[in-house]
């Protein structure tokens, strides 16, 4: 049952691109900006809180040499920003800033952008930010995450099954409980060791770096993994105590409360490190995630316990109790799942237009199949309960009469033991057939549930639709898009020639910031009395839209240009170099959604 989902997880993990979970909203200086004076620092602003690393910033000068900077810190104490101080004096030319941070849901993101001091360089320093995740490390991380989810479901679900369904014999359930505990221990240790190379985007061999591991233990993900490891000790004691109490048939409400607290604490170690910990409505989202995870564990772990119980000591009363508990779990899963889907998607378009939406549709389809299998199991359960009643009635009818004090009366001479009635044999055969059918349907449920857990694991490592929409409207994290920077040469009669560089930030539909810089024939910054910019979309008969540029003392800009539709726009630039001399140039630029 586990081999197939693990193979699927390996394929999905190896094929999936690196996922960014926080969107870069803005940079200061802006991407591609040309500044008259060197800035004192570089500031990044994200859509959610991020964690900083020792190598969060690398600033390269025009020659490709690394600039000595200060330590990365926050801007105005805000957790959604990253800032680094620059040297007092930077020379003229184009500088490249490569950055790497960890988003609030524990996934690393990286990118690069450029800015220029005085005038742009003819060439810029090449920089390779590399993938946000090393493919092998990311795959191993996903496998460990999947195994940790599965192990938690076994531990919590089987313990809940014992406490709530009260099977007559729990000896067969001890082996999966022990397997779940050791699996969770191993998976958590693997996640802790892989944390440093996962954040750094390096290979799994770096997991042996003691210094990197020590740094990991001071981060929020590292602390949460340590907390999970610490909780496994009382969980082991609780499981031992639960086994002893079951043997003596002395269940205690205090023990049940302790188990519930331990399950809640374990679930919180996931909730505080996943999508629920970032974005909107964090307290409600964390609560929903915890309830969703516990309901999943009660259902999935309970299915495994039910399978084992049906094979070892089938009992119709236990099956009926689990059927009722499973119905409640499904109801909770639907309610919390709808909320989490709305929170993650943000729009109906994201359901079909993002990877997150596609995975969510796949999960909904699998859950639909799972519910169909569960409905079949409920029908088998009802049929099994119907056969159980007449069997009990016959057992009561065949129960021996009380024996008198003087001993039983002597049987008549011609009496003989009655043969078992044929209806009893028929009922027993029917009950066995129903149990076999129930085992098959529950096995189908467990297999589909394991695959659902695979999709859930990949889903937690995928950029949510709401964040993808924010990222699409934010500054591109890997550099300037081809359409966002346009250089236009111009010539005005006898007044000379020059170029104007126009930057659209982010160069997509919606609100855009515009920056225009004029350079003279010698390539130096040039001041002009007027610069106008307008945009027209001929195919849709939109425009002209005036950018309304404002002279900022050396360059022209605006933050209020709105391009409502995607398409090939005509950008018209008018440069006035004197009271009587001006020239207009047009360029076609592509604006994406």
Account of the protein in words:
By secondary structure, this protein is of the alpha+beta class. The chain is 48% helix and 19% strand. The protein has twelve helices and 17 strands. The chain has helices spanning 3-15, 135-165, 174-200, 210-216, 220-247, 253-271, 282-312, 316-345, 349-353, 355-397, 422-460, 465-473, and strands at 24-28, 33-35, 41-46, 50-51, 57-60, 81-85, 93-103, 108-117, 485-491, 497-505, 510-519, 530-537, 542-546, 550-551, 556-563, 567-576, 582-591. The strands form four sheets. Strands 2, 4, 5, 7 and 8 form a five-stranded mixed sheet that branches. Strands 9-10-11-15-14 form a five-stranded antiparallel sheet, with no helix packed on it. The longest helix has 43 residues, at 355-397. The two termini are 43 Å apart.
Element layout with pairings:
Layout: H1 3-15, E1 24-28, E2 33-35, E3 41-46, E4 50-51, E5 57-60, E6 81-85, E7 93-103, E8 108-117, H2 135-165, H3 174-200, H4 210-216, H5 220-247, H6 253-271, H7 282-312, H8 316-345, H9 349-353, H10 355-397, H11 422-460, H12 465-473, E9 485-491, E10 497-505, E11 510-519, E12 530-537, E13 542-546, E14 550-551, E15 556-563, E16 567-576, E17 582-591
Parallel strand pairs: 2-8
Antiparallel strand pairs: 1-3, 3-6, 4-7, 5-7, 7-8, 9-10, 10-11, 11-15, 12-13, 12-16, 14-15, 16-17
Helix pairs in contact: 1-2, 1-11, 2-3, 2-6, 2-7, 2-11, 3-4, 3-5, 5-6, 6-7, 7-8, 7-11, 8-10, 10-11
């Amino acid at each position: 049952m586990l081999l197939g989902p693990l193979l699927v997880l390996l394929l999905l993990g190896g094929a999936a691109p690196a996922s960014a979970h926080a969107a870069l909203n803005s940079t200061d200086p802006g991407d591609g900006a040309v500044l008259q004076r060197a800035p004192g620092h570089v500031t990044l602003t994200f859509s959610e809180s991020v964690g900083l690393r020792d190598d969060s910033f690398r600033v390269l000068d025009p020659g490709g040499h690394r600039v000595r900077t200060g330590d990365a810190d926050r801007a105005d104490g805000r957790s959604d920003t990253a800032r680094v101080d620059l040297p007092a004096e930077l020379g003229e030319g184009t500088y490249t800033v490569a950055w790497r941070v960890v988003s609030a849901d524990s996934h690393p993101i990286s990118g690069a952008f450029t800015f220029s001091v005085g005038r742009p360089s003819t060439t810029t320093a090449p920089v390779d930010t590399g993938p946000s995740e090393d493919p092998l490390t990311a795959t191993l991380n996903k496998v460990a995450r999947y195994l940790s989810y599965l192990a938690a479901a076994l531990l919590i679900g089987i313990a809940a099954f014992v406490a709530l369904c009260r099977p007559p014999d729990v000896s067969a359930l001890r082996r999966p409980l022990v397997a779940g505990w050791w699996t969770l221990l191993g998976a958590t240790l693997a996640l802790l060791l892989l944390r440093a190379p996962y954040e750094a985007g390096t290979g799994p061999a770096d997991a042996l770096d003691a210094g990197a591991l020590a740094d990991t233990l001071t981060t929020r993900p590292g602390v949460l993994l340590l907390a999970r490891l610490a909780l496994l000790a009382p969980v082991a004691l609780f499981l031992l105590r639960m086994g002893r109490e079951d043997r003596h048939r002395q269940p205690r409400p205090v023990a049940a409360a302790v188990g519930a607290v331990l399950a809640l604490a374990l679930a919180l170690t996931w909730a505080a490190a996943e999508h629920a910990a970032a974005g909107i409505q964090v307290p409600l989202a964390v609560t929903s995630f915890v309830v969703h995870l516990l309901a999943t564990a009660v259902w999935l772990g309970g299915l495994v316990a039910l399978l084992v119980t049906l094979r070892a000591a089938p009992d119709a009363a236990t099956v009926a109790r689990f059927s009722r508990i499973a119905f409640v779990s499904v109801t909770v899963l639907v309610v919390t799942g709808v909320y989490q889907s709305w929170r993650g998607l943000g729009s109906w378009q994201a359901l079909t237009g993002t990877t997150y939406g596609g995975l969510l549709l796949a999960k909904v389809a699998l859950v639909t199949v799972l519910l169909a299998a569960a409905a079949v199991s409920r029908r088998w359960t009802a049929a099994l309960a119907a056969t159980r009643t007449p069997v009990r009635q016959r057992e009561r009818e065949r129960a021996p009469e009380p024996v008198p004090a003087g001993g039983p009366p002597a049987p008549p001479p011609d009496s003989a033991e009655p043969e078992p009635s044929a209806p009893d044999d028929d009922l027993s055969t029917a009950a066995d057939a129903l149990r076999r059918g129930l085992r098959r349907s529950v096995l189908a449920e467990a297999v589909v549930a394991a695959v659902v857990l695979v999709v859930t694991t990949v889903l937690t490592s995928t950029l949510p639709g709401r964040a993808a929409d924010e990222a699409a409207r934010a500054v591109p994290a890997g550099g300037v898009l081809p359409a966002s920077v346009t250089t236009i040469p111009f010539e005005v009669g006898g007044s000379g020639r020059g170029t104007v560089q126009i930057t659209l930030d982010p160069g997509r539909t919606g609100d855009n910031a515009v920056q225009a810089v004029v350079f003279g024939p010698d390539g130096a910054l040039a001041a002009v009395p007027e610069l106008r910019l307008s945009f027209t979309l001929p195919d849709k008969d939109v425009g002209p839209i005036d950018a309304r540029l404002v002279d900022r003392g050396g360059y022209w800009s605006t933050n209020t240009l709105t391009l409502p539709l995607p398409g090939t726009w005509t950008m018209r630039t008018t440069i006035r170099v004197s009271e009587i001399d001006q020239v207009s140039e047009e360029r076609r630029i592509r604006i994406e959604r």
